[in-house]
């Protein structure tokens, strides 16, 4: 049975990456808007200065041109010849007091100039104008900016500032994501350490590399695990001590009951002695199961060095006198190395096989299988069990649909051992490849020796 990890509702890394990138983007946009406003003001000053300078340069040239004309010549429009083909962004027009055009730049459009522009700067229908009047009002020089020129300059400048956002957005998200990932690496390690804690591993988590904001959380987690460890240790100690202390008096009482049964003749007294013997035997088995449960819930279910579990399985089968009652399938090499403690595996195997022999159909053999990949399964023949019965079989002191004697702790002990190594116990009915029966299997940790 696999543990399904529920994904978190929101990733802190994703939130920080998008928040930081969004903040940078917002600041960039604000800076672009501010720069656009400042640039618009500066461009207005530069272009107005250019208009004024054109008029002031053209004015003496126009005056000299008018004086050089023949006195009897009719006033007429003259167009300044262009040195080379080019587009004028500032054009000018020279008129007399009557409004007649005297001189204009080669690219000027007379329709762009109003008939009576005011002195100084003014705004026409589509352009910016600057006008000066000279020679007692006989010359009027007006310079006009090409329509939309300064607006286009501002737009181009803002585009230059804004275009990098398209490149900065993905790069910003990727860079911020990587930076946040590196920054949150101690927190990720802290999370993995907490996930590694379980029933058999409640050691404090390290707080050395954690930032100051998370360190109090780690200290609180360590304090909580310390309290849980004390409670579990007290419970296990009580269970183990109680079971151990019961073994001696129970064994003595059982011996006395058996001796009394042998001395008594057939009759009511001997029958009551048999009932006492049966109750004491049940109590002895219960104390043994409680000792096994205390060991299974302890921290000693893993071995520091890989151990071959096949000999332990053979010893369990021999102790249960299962010859002819069990069909055994072992790995191809006849060996299986695991980091599961050999004693813990013996307890696990004994409980599974003992349950199968006790509660299964005695007319058919029990199947015991250990594969090279660490799957250990025990199949007991019998009727198909409902999912409701299977769901409660791993609970303590809960027994399935059986009339056989038992304490209801066997599968709980197996489950506790598997939790100690980070695994689970799985039950299925009918058994794999069969029409009936119950299959119980666990995934044992495989060492490199077993894999090789």
UniProtKB/TrEMBL annotation:
<dbReference type="Pfam" id="PF00512">
    <property type="entry name" value="HisKA"/>
</dbReference>
<keyword id="KW-0472">Membrane</keyword>
<keyword id="KW-0597">Phosphoprotein</keyword>
<keyword id="KW-0547">Nucleotide-binding</keyword>
<keyword id="KW-1133">Transmembrane helix</keyword>
<keyword id="KW-0418">Kinase</keyword>
<feature type="transmembrane region" description="Helical">
    <location>
        <begin position="16"/>
        <end position="39"/>
    </location>
</feature>
<dbReference type="InterPro" id="IPR003661">
    <property type="entry name" value="HisK_dim/P_dom"/>
</dbReference>
<dbReference type="InterPro" id="IPR003594">
    <property type="entry name" value="HATPase_dom"/>
</dbReference>
<dbReference type="InterPro" id="IPR036890">
    <property type="entry name" value="HATPase_C_sf"/>
</dbReference>
<dbReference type="InterPro" id="IPR003660">
    <property type="entry name" value="HAMP_dom"/>
</dbReference>
<keyword id="KW-0902">Two-component regulatory system</keyword>
<keyword id="KW-0812">Transmembrane</keyword>
<feature type="domain" description="Histidine kinase">
    <location>
        <begin position="241"/>
        <end position="448"/>
    </location>
</feature>
<dbReference type="InterPro" id="IPR036097">
    <property type="entry name" value="HisK_dim/P_sf"/>
</dbReference>
<dbReference type="Pfam" id="PF02518">
    <property type="entry name" value="HATPase_c"/>
</dbReference>
<keyword id="KW-0808">Transferase</keyword>
<dbReference type="GO" id="GO:0005886">
    <property type="term" value="C:plasma membrane"/>
</dbReference>
<protein>
    <recommendedName>
        <fullName>histidine kinase</fullName>
        <ecNumber>2.7.13.3</ecNumber>
    </recommendedName>
</protein>
<keyword id="KW-0067">ATP-binding</keyword>
<feature type="region of interest" description="Disordered">
    <location>
        <begin position="106"/>
        <end position="125"/>
    </location>
</feature>
<dbReference type="GO" id="GO:0000155">
    <property type="term" value="F:phosphorelay sensor kinase activity"/>
</dbReference>
<feature type="domain" description="HAMP">
    <location>
        <begin position="181"/>
        <end position="233"/>
    </location>
</feature>
<dbReference type="InterPro" id="IPR050428">
    <property type="entry name" value="TCS_sensor_his_kinase"/>
</dbReference>
<dbReference type="InterPro" id="IPR005467">
    <property type="entry name" value="His_kinase_dom"/>
</dbReference>
<dbReference type="GO" id="GO:0005524">
    <property type="term" value="F:ATP binding"/>
</dbReference>
<feature type="transmembrane region" description="Helical">
    <location>
        <begin position="160"/>
        <end position="184"/>
    </location>
</feature>
């Amino acid at each position: 049975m696999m543990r399904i990890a529920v994904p978190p509702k929101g990733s802190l890394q994703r939130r920080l990456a998008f928040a930081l990138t969004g903040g940078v983007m917002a600041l960039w946009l604000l800076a672009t808007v501010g720069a656009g406003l400042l640039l618009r003001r500066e461009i207005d000053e530069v272009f107005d200065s250019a208009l004024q300078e054109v008029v002031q340069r053209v004015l003496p040239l126009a005056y000299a041109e008018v004086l050089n004309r023949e006195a009897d010549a009719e006033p007429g429009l003259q167009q300044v010849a262009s040195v080379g083909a080019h587009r004028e962004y500032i054009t000018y027009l020279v008129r007399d007091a009557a409004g007649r055009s005297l001189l204009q730049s080669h690219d000027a459009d007379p329709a762009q100039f109003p008939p009576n522009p005011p002195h100084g700067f003014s705004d026409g229908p589509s352009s910016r104008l600057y006008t000066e009047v000279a020679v007692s009002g006989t010359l009027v020089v007006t310079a006009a900016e090409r329509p939309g020129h300064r607006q286009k300059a501002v737009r181009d400048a803002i585009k230059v500032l804004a275009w990098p956002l398209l490149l900065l957005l993905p790069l910003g998200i990727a860079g911020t994501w990587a930076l946040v990932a590196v920054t949150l690496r101690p927190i990720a390690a802290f999370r993995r350490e907490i996930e590694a804690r379980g029933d058999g591993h409640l050691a404090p988590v390290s707080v050395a590399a954690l930032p100051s904001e998370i360190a109090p959380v780690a200290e609180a987690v360590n304090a909580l695990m310390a309290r849980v460890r004390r409670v579990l240790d007290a419970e296990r100690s009580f269970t183990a001590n109680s079971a151990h202390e019961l073994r001696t008096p129970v064994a003595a009482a059982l011996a006395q009951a058996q001796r009394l049964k042998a001395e008594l003749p057939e009759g009511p007294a001997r029958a009551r002695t048999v009932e006492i013997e049966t109750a004491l035997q049940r109590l002895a088995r219960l104390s043994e199961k409680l000792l096994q449960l205390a060991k299974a819930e302890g921290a000693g279910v893993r071995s520091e060095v890989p151990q071959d579990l096949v000999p332990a399985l053979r010893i369990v089968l021999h102790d249960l006198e299962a010859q002819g009652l069990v069909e055994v399938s072992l790995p191809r090499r006849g060996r299986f190395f695991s980091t599961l403690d050999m004693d813990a595996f013996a307890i696990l195997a004994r409980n599974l096989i003992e349950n199968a022999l006790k509660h299964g159909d005695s007319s058919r053999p029990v199947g015991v299988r250990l594969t090279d990949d660490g799957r250990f399964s025990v199949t007991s023949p019998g009727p198909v069990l409902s999912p409701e019965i299977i769901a409660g079989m791993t609970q303590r002191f809960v027994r399935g649909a059986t009339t056989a004697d038992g304490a209801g702790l066997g599968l709980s002990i197996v489950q506790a051992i598997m939790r100690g190594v980070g695994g689970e116990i799985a039950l299925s009915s009918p058994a794999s490849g069969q029409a009936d029966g119950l299959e119980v299997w666990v995934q044992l940790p495989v060492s490199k020796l077993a894999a090789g």
